[in-house]
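Board notes (copied after class):
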Amino acid sequence: MNDPKSVIRQLLMTPGFAAVVVALLIAAPLRVNACTIFVLTDAERALFFNNEDWFNPATRLWFVPAGKDHLGCAYLGFDNGWAQGGLNTAGLAFDWVSGFAEKYEPDPKLQPVRGNPSERMIESCKTVEEAIAFYSKYREPDFARSRILIADRTGASVVIGARNGKLHMATLRQSRGFGYGRAALEQELAKSPAPTVANGVAILRACLQPGDGGTKYSNAFDLKSGDMVLFPFPRRDESVTFNLAAELAKGPHYYDLAKVRDQFTAAPQPLRNNMKRFYLDEFSPLADQEPAVTEQVRAVIRDSANGTMRSEDYTAEFWSVLAPQQKKIQAELKGLGELVSLTLVGRHDEAASREYRYRAEFDRMVVLQRFVFDEQKKVKSVQSEASELKVGAASKMNN
Protein backbone atom coordinates (compact mmCIF):
# COMPACT_ATOMS: atom_id res chain seq x y z
CA MET A 1 0.00 0.00 0.00
CA ASN A 2 1.13 3.53 -0.77
CA ASP A 3 -1.91 5.39 0.46
CA PRO A 4 -0.63 8.91 1.03
CA LYS A 5 0.35 8.75 -2.60
CA SER A 6 -3.32 8.14 -3.22
CA VAL A 7 -4.02 11.45 -1.55
CA ILE A 8 -1.10 13.14 -3.27
CA ARG A 9 -2.29 12.34 -6.75
CA GLN A 10 -5.98 12.66 -6.04
CA LEU A 11 -7.69 14.89 -8.57
CA LEU A 12 -10.65 16.55 -6.89
CA MET A 13 -13.20 17.19 -9.61
CA THR A 14 -14.59 20.41 -8.19
CA PRO A 15 -15.51 23.40 -10.39
CA GLY A 16 -12.51 25.58 -9.82
CA PHE A 17 -8.78 25.64 -9.20
CA ALA A 18 -9.22 23.61 -6.01
CA ALA A 19 -9.02 20.58 -8.28
CA VAL A 20 -5.24 20.80 -8.29
CA VAL A 21 -4.71 20.60 -4.53
CA VAL A 22 -2.62 17.50 -5.24
CA ALA A 23 0.52 19.57 -5.68
CA LEU A 24 0.49 20.88 -2.15
CA LEU A 25 -0.01 17.46 -0.67
CA ILE A 26 3.10 16.23 -2.42
CA ALA A 27 5.14 18.76 -0.48
CA ALA A 28 4.03 17.33 2.87
CA PRO A 29 3.23 13.60 2.57
CA LEU A 30 1.65 11.92 5.56
CA ARG A 31 2.30 8.41 6.80
CA VAL A 32 0.47 5.99 9.03
CA ASN A 33 1.19 2.38 9.81
CA ALA A 34 -1.06 0.69 7.33
CA CYS A 35 -1.74 -2.45 5.26
CA THR A 36 -0.71 -6.07 5.63
CA ILE A 37 0.76 -7.97 2.67
CA PHE A 38 2.15 -11.49 2.43
CA VAL A 39 2.97 -14.36 0.12
CA LEU A 40 2.12 -18.03 0.68
CA THR A 41 4.14 -20.35 -1.53
CA ASP A 42 5.55 -23.86 -1.98
CA ALA A 43 7.03 -25.79 -4.89
CA GLU A 44 3.70 -25.77 -6.74
CA ARG A 45 1.81 -22.63 -5.77
CA ALA A 46 2.34 -18.91 -5.28
CA LEU A 47 -0.42 -16.77 -3.74
CA PHE A 48 -0.27 -13.05 -2.94
CA PHE A 49 -2.49 -11.46 -0.26
CA ASN A 50 -3.21 -7.88 0.85
CA ASN A 51 -5.32 -5.89 3.30
CA GLU A 52 -5.63 -2.32 2.04
CA ASP A 53 -5.86 0.12 4.95
CA TRP A 54 -6.74 3.76 4.42
CA PHE A 55 -9.38 6.44 5.00
CA ASN A 56 -10.87 6.61 1.51
CA PRO A 57 -13.89 4.28 1.10
CA ALA A 58 -14.12 4.82 -2.69
CA THR A 59 -12.28 1.66 -3.75
CA ARG A 60 -11.69 0.59 -7.35
CA LEU A 61 -10.46 -2.34 -9.45
CA TRP A 62 -9.43 -1.62 -13.03
CA PHE A 63 -7.98 -3.46 -16.00
CA VAL A 64 -5.57 -2.16 -18.64
CA PRO A 65 -4.97 -4.59 -21.54
CA ALA A 66 -1.51 -5.07 -23.01
CA GLY A 67 -0.19 -2.61 -25.56
CA LYS A 68 2.81 -2.26 -27.81
CA ASP A 69 5.18 -1.61 -24.94
CA HIS A 70 3.38 -2.83 -21.82
CA LEU A 71 1.86 -5.96 -20.29
CA GLY A 72 -1.79 -6.37 -19.43
CA CYS A 73 -2.48 -5.48 -15.80
CA ALA A 74 -5.12 -5.37 -13.09
CA TYR A 75 -4.85 -2.57 -10.56
CA LEU A 76 -6.43 -2.01 -7.16
CA GLY A 77 -6.74 1.32 -5.42
CA PHE A 78 -9.07 4.23 -4.91
CA ASP A 79 -11.04 6.69 -7.01
CA ASN A 80 -7.95 8.77 -7.86
CA GLY A 81 -6.65 6.09 -10.24
CA TRP A 82 -3.27 5.78 -8.51
CA ALA A 83 -2.64 2.04 -8.19
CA GLN A 84 -1.91 0.74 -4.69
CA GLY A 85 -1.38 -2.85 -5.83
CA GLY A 86 -1.60 -4.91 -8.98
CA LEU A 87 -1.09 -8.11 -10.94
CA ASN A 88 0.13 -8.60 -14.51
CA THR A 89 -0.26 -11.34 -17.10
CA ALA A 90 3.21 -12.71 -16.33
CA GLY A 91 2.17 -13.50 -12.76
CA LEU A 92 4.01 -10.62 -11.07
CA ALA A 93 2.21 -8.83 -8.23
CA PHE A 94 2.95 -5.93 -5.88
CA ASP A 95 1.56 -3.92 -2.99
CA TRP A 96 2.86 -1.46 -0.40
CA VAL A 97 3.06 -1.01 3.36
CA SER A 98 3.44 2.53 4.68
CA GLY A 99 4.45 3.89 8.07
CA PHE A 100 8.24 3.83 7.94
CA ALA A 101 10.55 6.76 8.58
CA GLU A 102 13.93 6.35 6.94
CA LYS A 103 16.49 8.91 5.86
CA TYR A 104 16.62 8.28 2.16
CA GLU A 105 17.63 10.37 -0.81
CA PRO A 106 17.50 8.56 -4.16
CA ASP A 107 20.81 8.22 -5.95
CA PRO A 108 21.02 11.04 -8.53
CA LYS A 109 21.84 8.39 -11.13
CA LEU A 110 18.37 6.87 -10.74
CA GLN A 111 16.09 8.02 -13.55
CA PRO A 112 12.65 9.51 -12.89
CA VAL A 113 9.65 7.89 -14.55
CA ARG A 114 6.39 9.24 -15.81
CA GLY A 115 3.39 8.72 -13.56
CA ASN A 116 3.20 6.02 -10.90
CA PRO A 117 6.52 4.13 -10.71
CA SER A 118 4.72 1.02 -9.44
CA GLU A 119 2.55 0.97 -12.54
CA ARG A 120 5.55 1.43 -14.79
CA MET A 121 7.22 -1.48 -13.01
CA ILE A 122 4.34 -3.95 -13.11
CA GLU A 123 3.50 -3.19 -16.74
CA SER A 124 7.08 -3.84 -17.87
CA CYS A 125 8.49 -6.60 -15.61
CA LYS A 126 7.80 -10.34 -15.61
CA THR A 127 9.91 -11.56 -12.70
CA VAL A 128 11.24 -10.46 -9.35
CA GLU A 129 14.67 -10.15 -10.93
CA GLU A 130 13.33 -7.75 -13.53
CA ALA A 131 11.54 -5.74 -10.83
CA ILE A 132 14.78 -5.44 -8.89
CA ALA A 133 16.50 -4.23 -12.05
CA PHE A 134 13.70 -1.69 -12.56
CA TYR A 135 14.08 -0.13 -9.12
CA SER A 136 17.84 -0.23 -9.49
CA LYS A 137 17.44 2.03 -12.51
CA TYR A 138 14.40 4.18 -11.77
CA ARG A 139 13.64 6.54 -8.90
CA GLU A 140 11.02 5.99 -6.21
CA PRO A 141 11.37 8.71 -3.51
CA ASP A 142 8.61 7.13 -1.45
CA PHE A 143 10.90 4.34 -0.28
CA ALA A 144 11.74 6.65 2.63
CA ARG A 145 8.22 6.12 3.95
CA SER A 146 7.00 2.86 2.43
CA ARG A 147 8.15 -0.58 1.43
CA ILE A 148 6.97 -2.65 -1.49
CA LEU A 149 6.52 -6.42 -1.66
CA ILE A 150 6.83 -7.89 -5.15
CA ALA A 151 6.32 -11.60 -5.91
CA ASP A 152 6.27 -13.69 -9.08
CA ARG A 153 4.70 -16.98 -10.13
CA THR A 154 7.77 -19.00 -9.04
CA GLY A 155 7.22 -17.98 -5.41
CA ALA A 156 10.22 -15.66 -5.39
CA SER A 157 9.67 -12.31 -3.69
CA VAL A 158 11.53 -9.16 -2.75
CA VAL A 159 10.89 -6.43 -0.18
CA ILE A 160 12.32 -3.10 -1.30
CA GLY A 161 12.69 -0.05 0.92
CA ALA A 162 15.28 2.23 2.46
CA ARG A 163 17.81 1.26 5.11
CA ASN A 164 20.65 3.41 6.44
CA GLY A 165 19.94 5.99 3.77
CA LYS A 166 20.27 3.56 0.88
CA LEU A 167 17.98 1.35 -1.15
CA HIS A 168 17.68 -2.09 0.44
CA MET A 169 16.36 -5.21 -1.30
CA ALA A 170 15.66 -8.48 0.52
CA THR A 171 14.86 -11.48 -1.67
CA LEU A 172 13.39 -14.78 -0.53
CA ARG A 173 11.73 -17.88 -1.95
CA GLN A 174 9.36 -18.86 0.84
CA SER A 175 6.22 -17.58 2.54
CA ARG A 176 6.73 -14.14 4.05
CA GLY A 177 4.98 -10.87 4.81
CA PHE A 178 4.82 -7.71 6.93
CA GLY A 179 2.67 -4.72 7.78
CA TYR A 180 0.05 -3.64 10.29
CA GLY A 181 -0.89 -7.20 11.30
CA ARG A 182 2.70 -8.32 11.72
CA ALA A 183 2.25 -10.05 15.08
CA ALA A 184 -0.69 -12.16 13.94
CA LEU A 185 0.91 -12.73 10.55
CA GLU A 186 4.20 -14.01 11.98
CA GLN A 187 2.33 -16.28 14.35
CA GLU A 188 0.43 -17.85 11.44
CA LEU A 189 3.45 -18.06 9.13
CA ALA A 190 5.35 -19.94 11.85
CA LYS A 191 2.81 -22.75 11.37
CA SER A 192 3.90 -23.11 7.70
CA PRO A 193 0.37 -22.85 6.32
CA ALA A 194 -0.29 -24.46 2.94
CA PRO A 195 -0.62 -21.87 0.17
CA THR A 196 -4.38 -21.89 -0.29
CA VAL A 197 -6.83 -19.05 -0.64
CA ALA A 198 -8.71 -20.26 2.44
CA ASN A 199 -5.59 -20.16 4.60
CA GLY A 200 -4.59 -16.77 3.28
CA VAL A 201 -8.04 -15.29 3.83
CA ALA A 202 -8.03 -16.52 7.43
CA ILE A 203 -4.75 -14.69 7.97
CA LEU A 204 -6.13 -11.55 6.32
CA ARG A 205 -9.05 -11.63 8.74
CA ALA A 206 -6.66 -11.89 11.69
CA CYS A 207 -4.78 -8.83 10.41
CA LEU A 208 -7.71 -6.48 9.74
CA GLN A 209 -7.15 -2.92 10.93
CA PRO A 210 -10.20 -1.27 12.59
CA GLY A 211 -11.30 2.35 12.52
CA ASP A 212 -11.83 5.00 9.86
CA GLY A 213 -8.34 4.42 8.50
CA GLY A 214 -8.71 0.67 8.67
CA THR A 215 -8.98 -2.04 6.06
CA LYS A 216 -11.08 -1.02 3.06
CA TYR A 217 -10.69 -4.16 0.95
CA SER A 218 -8.78 -7.43 0.89
CA ASN A 219 -7.49 -9.36 -2.10
CA ALA A 220 -5.87 -12.67 -2.99
CA PHE A 221 -4.00 -13.28 -6.26
CA ASP A 222 -3.07 -16.68 -7.65
CA LEU A 223 0.12 -15.79 -9.48
CA LYS A 224 0.02 -18.86 -11.74
CA SER A 225 -3.63 -18.97 -12.79
CA GLY A 226 -4.35 -15.23 -12.71
CA ASP A 227 -7.40 -15.79 -10.49
CA MET A 228 -8.19 -12.84 -8.23
CA VAL A 229 -10.44 -13.06 -5.16
CA LEU A 230 -11.70 -9.71 -3.90
CA PHE A 231 -13.37 -8.92 -0.59
CA PRO A 232 -14.93 -5.47 -1.13
CA PHE A 233 -16.18 -5.51 2.46
CA PRO A 234 -13.40 -7.34 4.29
CA ARG A 235 -15.38 -7.93 7.48
CA ARG A 236 -18.00 -9.89 5.56
CA ASP A 237 -17.77 -13.31 3.94
CA GLU A 238 -18.80 -11.91 0.55
CA SER A 239 -16.21 -12.27 -2.18
CA VAL A 240 -16.02 -11.94 -5.96
CA THR A 241 -13.62 -13.96 -8.11
CA PHE A 242 -12.13 -12.62 -11.33
CA ASN A 243 -9.73 -14.10 -13.82
CA LEU A 244 -7.16 -11.66 -15.15
CA ALA A 245 -7.09 -12.99 -18.72
CA ALA A 246 -10.89 -13.07 -18.95
CA GLU A 247 -11.23 -9.52 -17.67
CA LEU A 248 -8.53 -8.15 -19.98
CA ALA A 249 -10.35 -9.75 -22.91
CA LYS A 250 -13.25 -7.38 -22.16
CA GLY A 251 -11.00 -4.40 -22.89
CA PRO A 252 -10.13 -1.52 -20.54
CA HIS A 253 -12.72 -1.20 -17.79
CA TYR A 254 -13.18 -0.80 -14.05
CA TYR A 255 -15.36 -1.74 -11.09
CA ASP A 256 -16.47 0.17 -8.01
CA LEU A 257 -15.75 -2.40 -5.33
CA ALA A 258 -18.77 -1.36 -3.30
CA LYS A 259 -20.98 -2.19 -6.32
CA VAL A 260 -18.89 -4.94 -7.85
CA ARG A 261 -21.52 -7.69 -7.65
CA ASP A 262 -23.98 -5.70 -9.76
CA GLN A 263 -21.34 -4.32 -12.11
CA PHE A 264 -19.76 -7.73 -12.70
CA THR A 265 -22.81 -8.89 -14.66
CA ALA A 266 -23.41 -5.56 -16.41
CA ALA A 267 -21.69 -4.03 -19.43
CA PRO A 268 -18.08 -3.07 -18.63
CA GLN A 269 -17.55 0.49 -17.43
CA PRO A 270 -14.97 2.37 -19.53
CA LEU A 271 -11.89 3.47 -17.65
CA ARG A 272 -12.06 6.86 -16.01
CA ASN A 273 -9.52 9.32 -17.31
CA ASN A 274 -7.30 9.05 -14.25
CA MET A 275 -7.03 5.28 -14.74
CA LYS A 276 -5.73 5.52 -18.29
CA ARG A 277 -2.07 5.35 -19.27
CA PHE A 278 -0.87 8.86 -20.07
CA TYR A 279 -4.33 10.26 -20.74
CA LEU A 280 -2.96 13.71 -21.55
CA ASP A 281 -1.28 12.27 -24.64
CA GLU A 282 -4.71 11.87 -26.20
CA PHE A 283 -4.92 15.64 -26.69
CA SER A 284 -3.07 17.26 -29.57
CA PRO A 285 -2.51 21.00 -29.94
CA LEU A 286 -5.05 22.90 -32.02
CA ALA A 287 -4.49 25.99 -34.11
CA ASP A 288 -5.40 28.85 -31.79
CA GLN A 289 -7.83 31.01 -33.75
CA GLU A 290 -8.77 33.06 -30.68
CA PRO A 291 -5.53 34.18 -29.03
CA ALA A 292 -7.43 36.80 -27.05
CA VAL A 293 -9.32 34.03 -25.23
CA THR A 294 -6.07 32.25 -24.45
CA GLU A 295 -4.64 35.47 -23.04
CA GLN A 296 -7.77 35.89 -20.94
CA VAL A 297 -7.33 32.38 -19.55
CA ARG A 298 -3.67 33.07 -18.87
CA ALA A 299 -4.60 36.25 -16.99
CA VAL A 300 -7.21 34.41 -14.92
CA ILE A 301 -4.62 31.81 -13.89
CA ARG A 302 -2.01 34.50 -13.19
CA ASP A 303 -4.39 36.59 -11.08
CA SER A 304 -5.51 33.51 -9.17
CA ALA A 305 -1.90 32.61 -8.38
CA ASN A 306 -1.13 36.18 -7.32
CA GLY A 307 -4.19 36.52 -5.10
CA THR A 308 -5.70 39.24 -7.29
CA MET A 309 -8.79 37.51 -8.70
CA ARG A 310 -11.33 39.94 -10.16
CA SER A 311 -15.06 39.42 -9.80
CA GLU A 312 -15.71 40.98 -13.22
CA ASP A 313 -13.91 38.07 -14.91
CA TYR A 314 -16.53 35.58 -13.73
CA THR A 315 -20.28 35.12 -13.83
CA ALA A 316 -21.99 36.17 -10.62
CA GLU A 317 -22.96 32.58 -9.84
CA PHE A 318 -19.45 31.21 -10.29
CA TRP A 319 -17.87 34.11 -8.40
CA SER A 320 -20.06 33.31 -5.39
CA VAL A 321 -18.37 29.89 -5.34
CA LEU A 322 -14.83 31.15 -5.89
CA ALA A 323 -14.76 34.26 -3.71
CA PRO A 324 -14.59 32.47 -0.34
CA GLN A 325 -11.82 30.20 -1.68
CA GLN A 326 -9.41 32.80 -3.04
CA LYS A 327 -6.59 32.19 -0.55
CA LYS A 328 -6.89 28.44 -0.95
CA ILE A 329 -6.85 28.74 -4.73
CA GLN A 330 -3.78 30.96 -4.59
CA ALA A 331 -1.92 28.51 -2.36
CA GLU A 332 -2.79 25.58 -4.59
CA LEU A 333 -1.61 27.31 -7.73
CA LYS A 334 1.59 28.42 -6.02
CA GLY A 335 2.18 24.76 -5.22
CA LEU A 336 2.18 23.98 -8.93
CA GLY A 337 4.91 26.51 -9.66
CA GLU A 338 4.98 29.06 -12.45
CA LEU A 339 2.80 28.62 -15.52
CA VAL A 340 5.18 27.56 -18.29
CA SER A 341 2.84 27.21 -21.23
CA LEU A 342 -0.84 27.18 -22.16
CA THR A 343 -1.86 25.13 -25.19
CA LEU A 344 -5.32 24.92 -26.71
CA VAL A 345 -6.34 21.27 -27.21
CA GLY A 346 -10.14 21.49 -27.48
CA ARG A 347 -12.87 23.90 -28.58
CA HIS A 348 -16.64 23.43 -28.44
CA ASP A 349 -19.74 25.65 -28.63
CA GLU A 350 -22.97 24.68 -26.94
CA ALA A 351 -26.07 26.91 -26.68
CA ALA A 352 -24.94 30.13 -24.98
CA SER A 353 -21.61 28.74 -23.81
CA ARG A 354 -18.14 28.42 -25.32
CA GLU A 355 -15.90 25.68 -24.03
CA TYR A 356 -12.10 25.58 -24.27
CA ARG A 357 -9.71 22.88 -23.13
CA TYR A 358 -6.12 23.82 -22.37
CA ARG A 359 -3.06 21.82 -21.51
CA ALA A 360 -1.63 24.02 -18.76
CA GLU A 361 2.00 23.20 -18.04
CA PHE A 362 3.33 24.42 -14.71
CA ASP A 363 6.79 23.93 -13.25
CA ARG A 364 5.74 20.80 -11.41
CA MET A 365 2.59 19.49 -13.04
CA VAL A 366 0.66 19.41 -16.30
CA VAL A 367 -3.09 19.93 -15.94
CA LEU A 368 -5.91 19.54 -18.45
CA GLN A 369 -8.21 22.47 -17.71
CA ARG A 370 -11.66 23.11 -19.16
CA PHE A 371 -12.85 26.73 -19.20
CA VAL A 372 -16.44 27.61 -20.06
CA PHE A 373 -17.43 31.18 -20.99
CA ASP A 374 -20.88 32.75 -21.27
CA GLU A 375 -22.05 35.12 -24.01
CA GLN A 376 -20.52 38.08 -22.14
CA LYS A 377 -17.08 36.38 -22.21
CA LYS A 378 -17.20 35.77 -18.49
CA VAL A 379 -15.91 32.53 -16.99
CA LYS A 380 -18.83 30.40 -15.83
CA SER A 381 -16.88 27.30 -14.81
CA VAL A 382 -13.38 25.85 -14.59
CA GLN A 383 -12.67 22.18 -14.18
CA SER A 384 -9.45 20.21 -13.94
CA GLU A 385 -10.13 17.06 -15.95
CA ALA A 386 -6.74 15.37 -15.61
CA SER A 387 -3.30 16.04 -14.21
CA GLU A 388 0.14 14.53 -14.41
CA LEU A 389 3.13 15.18 -12.22
CA LYS A 390 6.06 16.16 -14.39
CA VAL A 391 8.91 13.68 -14.56
CA GLY A 392 11.31 14.39 -11.71
CA ALA A 393 8.98 16.87 -10.03
CA ALA A 394 8.20 14.75 -6.96
CA SER A 395 11.72 14.87 -5.61
CA LYS A 396 11.94 18.60 -6.31
CA MET A 397 8.72 19.22 -4.41
CA ASN A 398 9.95 17.23 -1.44
CA ASN A 399 13.17 19.23 -1.18
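Comment from the instructor: Residues 31-277 form a domain with the Penicillin V Acylase; Chain A fold (CATH 3.60.60.10). The chain has two domains: 31-277, 280-398.
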